[in-house]
């Protein structure tokens, strides 16, 4: 296998991330009596109250591994395509830390107080959409992709403001929905950016 094909394979791990993250929830949720995608957060599917806790936690751990692989793909692919060094390093670090966060959460499932992980994980998770969005904005080229990035960042910013208490909105009854909307502004961007980088690499060969 050539190095280019290996990097492309690494990036495909990034493309798989959102499908894996949301897919395991769709599989596990029907086995959890009374579970609501509106009220209940994803981590509850891995808690001691969930019939498929082990399945969910193993799935989240594997998703974390996929992100670690994707982080390598982002770094190696960026080096081959002339992405600015600083942006490449920050994106790779953010995706890598996001993978560690998923693995940590799976290893310490709810209600373990360690489940939330280190604040550094959260910092990188919040930074990840902005870094990936910058990459997509520059290399995605189309108006549709730029509109998608702008919308995702606006939605994420709104949810962060709600979570921080800056926006006085009672979202206690929609915690699950709020979390899923937030993750929709993060994990799909990993897939989109990975696909774009893979395409740019292929174009550079022509």
Description:
- This is DUF998 domain-containing protein.
- The chain crosses the membrane at residues 9-32, 52-76, 83-106, 118-137, 149-169, 181-197.
- InterPro entries: DUF998.
- It comes from Fimbriimonas ginsengisoli Gsoil 348.
- Keywords: Membrane, Transmembrane, Transmembrane helix.
- By secondary structure, the chain is mainly alpha-helical.
- It has one domain.
- Helix content is 73%, strand content 0%.
- The protein contains seven helices and no strands.
- Helix 1 (3-28) runs antiparallel to helix 7 (187-205).
- The longest helix is centred in the N-terminal third of the chain and has 29 residues, at 53-81.
- It starts with a helix and ends with a helix.
- 38% of the residues are buried.
- The mean pLDDT is 93.
Number of domains: 1
Averaged pLDDT = 93
Percent strand equals under 5%
* Cα radius of gyration in angstroms: 17 Å
The percentage helix is over 70%
Largest sheet: none
Number of strands: 0
Number of helices: 7
Structural class: mainly alpha
- The span between the termini is 19 Å
Secondary-structure element series:
HHHHHHH
Uncertain runs: none
Shape: globular
Organism: Fimbriimonas ginsengisoli Gsoil 348
Keywords: Membrane, Transmembrane, Transmembrane helix
Pfam families: DUF998
Transmembrane segments: 9-32, 52-76, 83-106, 118-137, 149-169, 181-197
